[in-house]
Amino acid sequence: FLPIVNVLSAAGILKGTLAAAVLAGWLAESSPAYVVCDAIASALFYFLPVFLASTTAALVGADRVTAVLLAAVVLYPDLSAALESGQRVTFFGAPVGAVTYPSSVIPILLGVLVLAGAERGAGRCLPEVVRGPLVPLVSLVVAAGGVLVVPVGSAIGQGLAQGYGWVHSLSPVLAGATLGGLIQLMVLFGFHWALVPIAISNIVAFGSDTILAFFAPAVFAQAGACLAVCLRTKNRAYRTVCVSAAISACFGITEPAMFGVTLPLRKPLAAVCVAGAVGGGVAGASGAAAMSFAFPGLTTLPIFLGPGFGMFTVGCLGAAAIAFVLTLVMRFDADAVARAQEARESRED
User: Which DSSP letter does residue 258 get?
Assistant: First the structure.
């Protein structure tokens, strides 16, 4: 997902902005401007398997062009129309699953893995003189047949969405508090990427997603903690680092805050986790959800417009305030990172 995360966010911002414009009465859904802008915002999500095929191929060593063609096969309009209409479709006698693939995630990831294995196998078995055209032909037939006839990826995606829905229905407040408190630790180890397919599956299956709403308070909590450290440190250069990290966090990029401020000082990160848990609980109670995919930040707030948006905003601002206050009153050496940096620079000189 990392190579396409910026365009995902851009599409999400535009989709949220369009929803806000319609809600405010500035733009009609029937207007040509809306139709064009909606196409720009929705195309990435509709053709998401194509983009994921390309990035996954680079990761697993499959031919990128063949992988993109595999995604185009499962999105082919005639095939999609036949499956949507309930028509019985077979592939060499095997029934094709009644599943459509626009906006899906896991099927194409598994399909490209199968494609990579089929390419390697065909490359070893076929004579060198015919490998050029026959390796992609054989591997495409194997991979496309596997995706369409055995729709494991679709079942996994639906299962994840339904499983998360079940957990969320038990207690939205507890779910929000748990994820809000842990999400920045998950970012630290890269585990948050595992939630991205679930969030997208939720949007496809239900039209909205609450996971992204639970991310948001901790993002703003990072900004609050950085501003508090800025007030406490006596090092002018480190103040600049803190302010820059706080601004980045407000726009959804928490790595500078995490690795430059809160993690090295430790206790501010604990304050972020506490504040994220409180804000996440409020977000859960609000019922707010994302209508499209984008990592939370000031520019992506429009994707959360809808029921509970006001309370959700309070949760985000409250998390920032709690992290700010906790970081101010905690006992720790706010200049430790700055001194360590100065010591390293002195040794290098």
Answer: I
In this structure, the dihedral spanned by the alpha carbons of residues 180, 11, 309 and 169, taken in order and rounded to 10 degrees, is -50
CA distance 211 to 132: 45
Q: Residues 313-327: what's their mean pLDDT?
A: 95
What pLDDT digit, counting tens, does each position of 241-299 carry? Answer: 889 889 888 888 888 888 888 988 889 999 999 999 999 999 999 999 988 877 888 87
Q: Which residue has the tokens 């090295």?
A: 264
CA dist., res. 141 & res. 118, Å (int) = 9
Compute CA distances 42 → 48, 73, 126, 211, 212, whole Å: 10, 20, 41, 20, 18
Backbone angles phi, psi at 94, to 5 degrees: -90, 130
DSSP summary character for residue 104:
-
Smallest CA-to-CA distance from 165 within 312, 278, 289, 296 is with 289
Alpha-carbon distance of 154 to 172, in angstroms, equals 26
Task: Give the torsion through C-alpha atoms of 220, 221, 227, 231, to 10 deg.
Answer: 160
Rounded distance between C-alpha atoms, residue 50 and residue 72, angstroms? 7
Whether the Cβ atoms of residue 241 and residue 260 lie closer than 8 Å to each other? yes
For 37, counting Cβ atoms within 10 Å of its Cβ (0-12 exposed, 13-18 middle, 19+ buried), the class is middle
CA distances from 30 to 12, 24, 109 (A): 20, 15, 36
* Cross-strand bridge partners of residue 91: 94
Q: Is the pLDDT of residue 347 over 70?
A: no
155-189 pLDDT tens trace? 776 676 677 777 778 889 988 998 899 888 888 77
Write down the pLDDT at residue 271. 95
- The residue count for the chain: 349
